[in-house]
Design goal:
cytoplasm, mainly alpha, FlhD_sf, Flagellar transcriptional activator fold, about 75% helix, transcription regulation, 6 helices, Flagellar_FlhD
Length: about 110
């Protein structure tokens, strides 16, 4: 197997795992999944309704289908040791991610 075909297979596996997780979270609790994954309702509903065949088809595109929600500032904050307790630090990072999700959703709705 060539390096590029191995990379394509790895990407397909990553995509498939991600899509299956997304669909499971959406089916368990739509609102929580939208918050955790940074999805708007339209995309979450669409992903929740996809068949396994559709998921496999999209997963096999050869390109990673999701992107990082973290910008450099949030990522740096998340990995920088602080004097805050671990739980408080995790809560602060979650708040920063929620702010990013809200801003992204507002931009998407405005477009």
């Amino acid at each position: 197997m060539s390096e590029s075909s191995k990379a394509a297979a790895d990407i397909a596996e990553l995509n498939l795992g991600y899509l299956l997780l997304v669909q499971r979270l959406i089916k368990e609790d739509l609102a929580t999944a939208m918050f955790r994954l940074g999805l708007n309702r339209e995309l979450a509903t669409l992903l929740g309704r996809m068949t396994l065949a559709q998921i496999v088809q999209i997963a096999s595109t050869g390109h990673v289908i999701f992107s990082f929600r973290l910008d450099a500032k949030v990522l740096e904050h998340a990995i920088t040791p602080t004097n805050l307790t671990t739980k408080l630090h995790q809560a602060h990072v979650a708040i920063m991610l929620a702010k990013e999700s809200a801003e992204t959703a507002e931009l998407a709705e405005a477009a």
